[in-house]
Amino acid sequence: MRILAVDDEPEALRYVRDSLVKSGFEPLLTADPDEARRLVEDEKPRLVLLDLMLPGTDGIELMREIGRTANVPVIFVSAYGQDQLVARAFDAGAADYVVKPFSPTELVARIRAVLRRLDAQQPSAPYVLGDLTVDYEERQVTLAGQPLELTDIEYRTLAELSANAGRVSTYEQLLRRVWDLDGDGDVGPIRTVIHALRTRLGDNASDPTYIFTQPRVGYRMPRGEPAG
């Protein structure tokens, strides 16, 4: 399983490389944001470890650019642990945030936790409804045959809703399974992501095709079409 690490500090990259290798991952390493974009596209890593502060590059903007190429989760690795920076990273769609210095055990545990969340109860067969296809194995979404560019949090929300198609996914379930938060948290981020998904899908909230609102409860998607 390939993990891409992007950091401008050679010592940090070596430390991450050794931690990944000892845990059975295949590391891809670079200090160059342009090369990071190419590696995501060509090597298709399962997850990206990204330094928040790269010379001449904003890590959050780089994450957004990576998200336009692939639905790959990003864990920020940074020496800066201020609340506002951490909140900004999560608001932008980061899967997790690790503050330097960290132990190999913590880093690998964070990676595995993110991957478990992505893989938990995910169907093997794609979800198909009209022009929409969600391919869970490839982590790819297409609409009318064209790939949709989704952020990691948008993809995970859509995957969760479609995997439970025909049933309502409550706010509490979405907070736990997608955001890994207690079920009584703020539902504002969920509404923001649902709005973004509807925009990308061309879905009308008042007359939806794909994502239906259950007032004060959550959201649901219709059952997919039978295979073949």
- Going across the major beta sheet, what is the strand order? 2-1-3-6-7
Which stretches are low in confidence, meaning pLDDT under 50 for 5 or more residues running? Answer: none
What about the largest sheet? Answer: 5 strands, parallel
Tell me the strand percentage band. 15-25%
Gross morphology is globular
Helix content: 40-55%
Mean pLDDT: 88
| Strand element count | 14
Distance between the termini: 31 Å
Radius of gyration: 18 Å
SSE topology string:
EHEHEEEHEHEHEEEEHEHHEE
Textual characterization of the structure:
With 228 residues, the protein is an alpha/beta fold. The protein is built from eight helices and 14 strands. It has a five-stranded parallel β-sheet, sandwiched between helices. A four-stranded antiparallel β-sheet has the order 8-9-10-11, covered by helices on one side. Strands 12-14-13 form a three-stranded antiparallel β-sheet. A hairpin with a 2-residue loop joins β8 (127-129) and β9. The longest helix has 16 residues, at 104-119.
Show the helix and strand layout.
Blueprint: E1 2-6, H1 10-22, E2 26-30, H2 33-43, E3 47-51, E4 53-54, E5 57-58, H3 59-69, E6 74-78, H4 83-91, E7 96-99, H5 104-119, E8 127-129, E9 132-135, E10 140-143, E11 146-147, H6 152-163, E12 169-170, H7 171-177, H8 188-201, E13 212-214, E14 218-220
Parallel strand pairs: 1-2, 1-3, 3-6, 6-7
Antiparallel strand pairs: 4-5, 8-9, 9-10, 10-11, 12-14, 13-14
Helix pairs in contact: 1-5, 2-3, 6-8
